[in-house]
Amino acid sequence: MQSLDRIGQAPYVKAVTSRKGQTHDRPSASHWNTVKLIGNILLDISTFFVLLIPILADAIGRLFRKAEKKSIVGQTALVTGGANGLGRDLCLQLASAGCHVAVVDLDESNGKQTTADIRRLGVKAHFFKADVSSYEAVVALRTAVSQKLGPVDILINNAGVLPLMSLREGTPNDLRKVIEINLLSHLWMLRTFLNDMIERKRGHIVAIASITSYLPAERIIAYVASKYGVRGLMGSFASELHAEGLDDVIKTTTVYPCFIKTRHELMEALSQMRIKHRVPIMESHTVARAIVGAILYNKSIVFLPKVIGPFAWIYENLPSPVAHLAKRCFLRTSIPNVMVDTKRDEPAFR
Question: Residue 128, by phi and psi: left (phi above 0), alpha (psi -120 to 50) or beta?
């Protein structure tokens, strides 16, 4: 593969095309190619429906049998953004399920407190201060976690920021940090920790996305872009695991939550927008319990609350005018410009 460091330097080589008039000179060949194309399509469709039968049979069977619950007792879980909010509750829920926990965050004070609370549940826990938006820091984190707790079995990419900031607000560095923390950190963590899971033939990777991965809202453009990126990343990653025959040993779960009651600033912002009582707002411990349950039952996609899933799919496929009308009717508000000072260093909620 050409190095991306040489973009624009390597000569452009145009793809070879057929000679002018070649198709008109050989109409019979063109017709034969069309017949072959149609034949291949019909064969592919027939093959698809034949192979679909056992999948449908298995799906119907699962409706009548109890889902199998796996054990994660003694496994090592790593949670990014684990010092506060949802991350902290995820750490405590995993510890209650018998996991040893690596708490990763930049907030050292609350990270150490979370670690102490986990140890009271009778499992091992260590706090690791790391900036997961840095690839070098993530590589160093893997080494440190391996030395303290051993290889990671369950990886939860939870760290994120939610800035009420549009494209023309904040600084260029603010926009870059949103993408680095909310999306690039997922890539670095997957790239760094996946090989250990492949070698051990065991692993579960959880990505905390957002309902905005399906319902894009105004004035949080960088955030929405990052969460759409997480959705695409996990979909492509799961497909690659299947193509390589690894999806039986390495599971993935992508979570699409609505608002979670974490920071006071977020609740105040929702009140200012006059939508606090018009959207689902869940307690972080409830969300954490649902996510750990999804791990135990190998659920690949989780909407929280569950009822939002069908509405998200419908909304995503509505024509734009109808989607705008639905948002205006149900939310009855728009997100205001709350970031007046474009030079703020910390425009985000965690």
Answer: beta
